[in-house]
Amino acid sequence: MIYLLAINYYSSQLIAKLINSISPNQVVEYQIIIVNNSPDEQSIQDLKTDKVVILESGENLGFGKACNLGLNWIYQQNQKAIVWLINPDAYLLPEALEKVPALFQNHPELSILGTIIYTTTGEIWFAGGEFIPKNGAIIPKTIDNQNSNIPYLKTDWVSGCSLLINLQKFPVCPQFDPEYFLYYEDFDFCQRYAKQGHLIAITNQIGVVHQPSAITGKNAFLKFQHSTYSYLLTMEKYTSKIVLLLRLVRLLLNAIYLIPLKPKVALGKLVGISLYLRRVF
């Protein structure tokens, strides 16, 4: 069984497009789980069918906590399932779902698998992630270096926009760190489980299309507040203190520079830095 897990935050029209990207003649057994982070959005209820389950969060939990709610529910239903975490502003390419069971059946060593992610113009938006601890660089790749005959390549991290989890590889239900409200929770998720010995990989045999920032781009202040806080938290967890300090100073100087040019972006970064420092001290 494959469970597609999407987090809704005022994005019912986008999720409808995601649902419609799955062929009605689909032979693969699947179910779509929507965690509703916007309880006052009534239109999301129109999507409920025998294939679509809606879990009410009661409030905006943020991405990580909402994912955990969905993962826990799925784990209770089927501890050997495949969970496909997918953004509401993404949709499947033809035959993407059909390829999932065979890929995991042929490669049971996989724990967390990312897919190639394309933009709406057909360009590669994500093809694996690299991490350089000595300088804190978190690098998303936008070039597909995989030979088409290679089922997957090991990578440092994969995007939560389209991330498959093989539940039977986990003795307890995998969880995102609830400290992350938004951004970098996928990176942290991969880093934590890689350290536990899980294989993190990317495949070019499965693809989705993503509309970047279709949701989070609506509010620049909150976008940069959350991304700045999460970024500094990530630097704290996975780099040295000197790298963290240098990155923090660079963020601060950049925010000050942007005040007259992009005040909402600058203010978001400054608030994110402030929240992080308040947490530390």
From TrEMBL:
Gene3D superfamilies: Spore Coat Polysaccharide Biosynthesis Protein SpsA, Chain A. Pathway: Cell wall biogenesis; cell wall polysaccharide biosynthesis. Keywords: Glycosyltransferase, Transferase. GO terms for molecular function: glycosyltransferase activity. InterPro entries: Glyco_trans_2-like, Nucleotide-diphossugar_trans. Residues 10-128 form the Glycosyltransferase 2-like domain. The keyword Manganese does not apply. Belongs to the glycosyltransferase 2 family. This is Glycosyltransferase family 2 protein. It comes from Floridaenema aerugineum BLCC-F46.
